[in-house]
Write a structure and sequence with these properties.
- The structure is a homodimer.
- Chain A is α+β, with helices and mostly antiparallel strands.
- In chain A, 53% of the residues lie in helices and 9% in strands.
- The first copy, chain A, has two domains: 176 residues, Butyryl-CoA Dehydrogenase, subunit A, domain 2, CATH 2.40.110; 406 residues, Up-down Bundle (Butyryl-CoA Dehydrogenase, subunit A, domain 3), CATH 1.20.140.
- The first copy, chain A, is globular, with a radius of gyration of 28 Å.
- The structure holds flavin-adenine dinucleotide (2 copies).
- One flavin-adenine dinucleotide (FAD) sits at the interface of chains B and A.
Amino acid sequence: TNPDLAKERSKATFDPTKITNLFDGSREATARRQKLAALIRNDPTGIFSNEENAYLHRTDRHVRALAKHVRLIELCRSIGIGQDTNGEIVLDKDWFNLLAAVADDLPTSLHWVMFVPNLISLCDEEQQSRWLPMCRDWKMIGCYAQTELGHGSNVRALETTATFKKESEGGMKGGSWVINSPTLTSIKFWPGCLGRTCNHAMVIARLIDGDGKDHGMHNFLVQTRSLDDHTLMPGVTCGDIGPKIGYNNMDNGFAKFENVEIPRRNMAMRFASVDEQGVYEKKVVSDAAAKISYITMMQVRSLIVMEAGRALRMGTTIAIRYSAVRKQGFKSSKTMEENQILDYKQQQHRLLPLLAASYCFFFTGKKVLNDLKAIENRLMNLKDGEATITKTEVGDIHATTSSLKSFTTTITADGLEDLRKSCGGHGFLQSSGFPELITSYLQNPTVEGDNQMLPMQVIKILLKLVKDVQSGNIEDWKKTDCSYLLSPVGAMLNGEEAKPCSVDSKEAMKKTDVIRDAFQHRAASLLVSVAQQIQTDVMEGKKFEDAWNGALIQMGRVSRAHAAFLLFNNFISGIEAEEGKLIGENESTVLTDLALLLGFYWIEKDIGDFLEDSYFNAEQAAWARACTLEMMDTIRPNAVSLVDANDFSDFQLKSALGRYDGNVYPAILEASKKDPLNATEPGPGYEQHLKRLIVDGAGIYSGTSSRL
Amino acid sequence: TNPDLAKERSKATFDPTKITNLFDGSREATARRQKLAALIRNDPTGIFSNEENAYLHRTDRHVRALAKHVRLIELCRSIGIGQDTNGEIVLDKDWFNLLAAVADDLPTSLHWVMFVPNLISLCDEEQQSRWLPMCRDWKMIGCYAQTELGHGSNVRALETTATFKKESEGGMKGGSWVINSPTLTSIKFWPGCLGRTCNHAMVIARLIDGDGKDHGMHNFLVQTRSLDDHTLMPGVTCGDIGPKIGYNNMDNGFAKFENVEIPRRNMAMRFASVDEQGVYEKKVVSDAAAKISYITMMQVRSLIVMEAGRALRMGTTIAIRYSAVRKQGFKSSKTMEENQILDYKQQQHRLLPLLAASYCFFFTGKKVLNDLKAIENRLMNLKDGEATITKTEVGDIHATTSSLKSFTTTITADGLEDLRKSCGGHGFLQSSGFPELITSYLQNPTVEGDNQMLPMQVIKILLKLVKDVQSGNIEDWKKTDCSYLLSPVGAMLNGEEAKPCSVDSKEAMKKTDVIRDAFQHRAASLLVSVAQQIQTDVMEGKKFEDAWNGALIQMGRVSRAHAAFLLFNNFISGIEAEEGKLIGENESTVLTDLALLLGFYWIEKDIGDFLEDSYFNAEQAAWARACTLEMMDTIRPNAVSLVDANDFSDFQLKSALGRYDGNVYPAILEASKKDPLNATEPGPGYEQHLKRLIVDGAGIYSGTSSRL
Ligand SMILES: Cc1cc2nc3c(=O)[nH]c(=O)nc-3n(C[C@H](O)[C@H](O)[C@H](O)COP(=O)(O)OP(=O)(O)OC[C@H]3O[C@@H](n4cnc5c(N)ncnc54)[C@H](O)[C@@H]3O)c2cc1C
Ligand SMILES: Cc1cc2nc3c(=O)[nH]c(=O)nc-3n(C[C@H](O)[C@H](O)[C@H](O)COP(=O)(O)OP(=O)(O)OC[C@H]3O[C@@H](n4cnc5c(N)ncnc54)[C@H](O)[C@@H]3O)c2cc1C
């Protein structure tokens, strides 16, 4: 091990293993995860090796990733993964640890991320009983086909049609659906695994019933390829959409449908059905059932929050270890001894707040997933399920997940790139691990609700809160994540003078309560001002659409402020809740240091928010800035151990810079030598091209000729 | 043409062609550029086509890029490019237009970007007369080899050695240099075109003279490959450093030297020499000559500023055209008509300030290049050249170029990525043109002075200004870019109460002077506070190194504030200077609108800077925000024409989304179909892998087995 890293590790004031257990959930869970990771790493087929990833052409990477998937399934069957879940491998709690151990994108992932969950939530029981076993056995492999060439965000504008055709009019027995892509822009475009991998697609299309009436978007299970030989079904054209900035193992695909006929019962019929005559009917389902399927959608966003933390944890692990090993710049003009770059304040200012954020997202991710699980359980345990879960509660968790998804994925996408830059030139190398980590991550700000658009969802709900506060209708809000807004919003609406921050020294500032209060005040204050802006605009005669459009930028600020409060609050309460369980006082002290750093850093970054309405005065602003610096000093000695606690193996990090042993330079060089461009000597461009200049003299200047 | 785009174009209040001429320098220059571009586009060999770029493996792209270079040279010779510059193609003013027309990275670029300029500035006349003709004829192809595996920024810590060996001790006739890479970390690493392309390297190494004395870094011309067959010279090992996040046409390389012997006269001897006995001597050169070589280095940074603008102009062209064509979201609940996404305020907030920045950078890039040229001319025209150019003046332009390089490349790197995101999912596609534009651009924040480190250079000079103001020594500063700081810094140092902004209405705010004053005040105020912070820390007993380190983050703020002032100021004065020449009143009005938008946007972004010392009050802050919105409204109708004025051809943009005709959807689909992954049906992963699941049943659940 590199001696600088060893020294860093010896300085830790806490036990990294305890934090590892916290991330995993228990000591046993850590051991299990490590065992599964070893299984992948040591698999005798060798197919899981990621060593060649960066050197393969995209086509080869895709093929190799498919091979990994097949081997993974085979392995799972052989060791009984999925046995506790009726054979459903992807529902086994070990599955995600296995995927993390594989540490490479699988083209099949949409099958379990979207396709199967969609089957479960939108199909009726008979349909599920037919299709789920085929999914379980990996004969039916599916994708989720919503987005079209012309429309993503505006789902209501999708153009694909599913038109009912009665048996009597030449349809299949019992009637059928004819799926069509009537325009160029209606071609399905983007669905993951649609291009080359899947044989079924859950297609979102406008339902045209037997009378030609349009009932809007519904889901249809369309077989795209033969189960015998994977050839395309009649009327289906599909393929891969081509190379992307990242995520290139995946065959995001396009599909055009020309009179593709599927059985009537391939419409997902849990919430609506069409009979053999083509008569459309909404089904009467319990409110609870409807809510559960809605909750499922939100779980995806919470997983994204969790994943944002995880991606940041990978990034900070690489950048912080490297910054402890990398030396650049003499300590003083008198010595040849160099500084570890981790000791420069500006380097710390890039790395340590992101380290703190990576931890912070974990606590919130965990809390929100638990909250959703609790709601789901409450809904499932109700017989007729109307009462206990209010619309307000569902709205609240929708606001929570939307604001968090947008905020955390923005920080992570930008943060990973900044971490890469903090490694100087070497961060530009694929072998640093950053390029792939970043470019594959970059989809997150766009998918599952564009980050610029989610704030609108958040605001709709928060404006409802403002209205309810105005009308004194706040009971339902009291047990929600938004409850912190009630009292300050109430006071502001009453025209009460807001109390500015009362802290009177830098030391007094260094309290989590001070930060929490500041974030609480800011969110309430921005929210009230957006509400008033829209109201004023409308009263002054603007069209609502224009008032709304004019407030979009401010909505983004409110949504971020809401997310920041929640994240900070959950960080603090999460640490408190864990102390004495998996972690002790030493660990909770370090975690609280991280929370303080993050809080001050976020305040510093948006200091205008706090100065503009005089919540902070200039002196307090300066203290906040000074506190950021001081917290960086406090955290510095624990930095390496805090990333070690993530317990990512070198196999997972795939980074010459982030290696546990810190031997970065031989690793970089070894990776370089592997490039196929080095396979021949001289290189592959010489004989045919360069030689024409260097030997044949194609570039010799021979005096004047006629000038163009 | 797409009707929405046509409509946009019809709305313009100015003549885009006039602005095109402004960018090119004259009407004739525009015509010439277009003529050269057509030559490349229509070249009968077809080698310049960029259509396949995204589908090729890295090795093939590199080879193809070499082929382009060779063809380009051949073409240049055949039409007399370089004839006005003694055969030196790369010095011809047409050269950069040809490169822009090729619109693909050439692995040879370091030859003219660094190698030849280095030869010219550091070699003596006899050396130049031997080597430059070989460069001109493309027989000697060189790279600039400074960075090592272990050291980039800290140049003084480089480890490669060049040890003198007398003829009498077995050296070559007249003595020689023995080049060595004594450690793993001393291996040269990163030089562009070193890996596979070049046959010579300008190697920076520690000079060890005949007496074994170390004279620090000097430049040595080392032949790396044979001119006959491109095989490696004895003792040289080199290769490509492997795949990178972008810029993969280029063979950035590594090189290890083991007792590589080169003639004594291969040391670059303009400023120092070593005689046949190995005696080292600094040469007496005029101060002017030394300064000129320094100026040359700064020209590279100014070109980077210009390029930052150009890259942003490409990015905004793609994103704005696409945003005019893309429709997403119904105008109201009553209609199926959809909005152009360019009409959403948050979309405008992402795109229009970057549009403004892309224009702004152009004016500053042009001004700084002119200033440098003027200084160079003044220096060249002096006989003994000491007097007229002061150290202060040189320092000033160093501060200017350093702060601008750091600021503009940060905005461009972040901005391009945000432009990509603004295109939603389709921005993720290679065919959008963004991935390559961005990933190749990403080197700019790191190379030629890391963006986080340049501010230190800026501050060193600005602190000197503070000191000179303190001691009343300001005469030299009066004709510099920094002169705007003199009066406010003087006032602040005298303890005078700063005058806050006096604007008393939103309308009164909408003046370029108001913004300029605000930027001026901010830069001065941040500078004085950093100066005071360092001073106080040192007086309170901190070591200077620690005080410096503690101020690093604030230095970054000062440097940005300085850059923002310069950019804004040059934008305004640049527009004024052009009106009535290439552009008329209509154009200058539109350009001033852009300047106002940019100013308000930058104020809004860093509003805390202006609130913290009460330069703005809360009301003024709100006005600034409102002015941003209003300026977006003003610019909106001209947005498409403002990007059309860039006059990038579709061939150059390489973007399905940014096409001039707006026919984006067929173009996207066509690009998709070309992916080699679509070459076979079913796809290449089926037979060997997927089939094992779908047909052979490798994943079938067959009940319990023993669980791991
Ligand atoms: C890697 C990847 C994987 C994907 N996988 C799948 C998949 O498996 N299945 C599937 O169906 N789809 C998939 N998608 C598609 C994805 O869901 C869409 O890209 C996403 O919904 C965004 O929609 P869009 O691309 O149409 O962007 P657009 O909606 O066109 O957005 C473009 C811009 O317009 C702005 N904008 C749009 N509407 C509004 C509005 N009303 N108000 C203000 N601003 C607006 C946005 O903020 C954005 O800046 C995937 C996409 C990617 C990149
Ligand atoms: C695409 C590309 C092309 C290149 N081409 C060439 C070429 O042709 N020839 C050549 O010789 N080189 C080339 N380089 C190398 C390039 O010049 C270096 O990468 C650059 O100088 C940065 O140095 P570094 O990589 O050692 O980063 P480092 O100096 O190691 O920086 C790492 C981090 O430490 C911080 N840091 C370092 N020192 C200090 C300090 N004193 N104070 C505070 N913070 C500090 C930096 O801000 C950064 O965040 C190229 C690099 C790239 C990426």
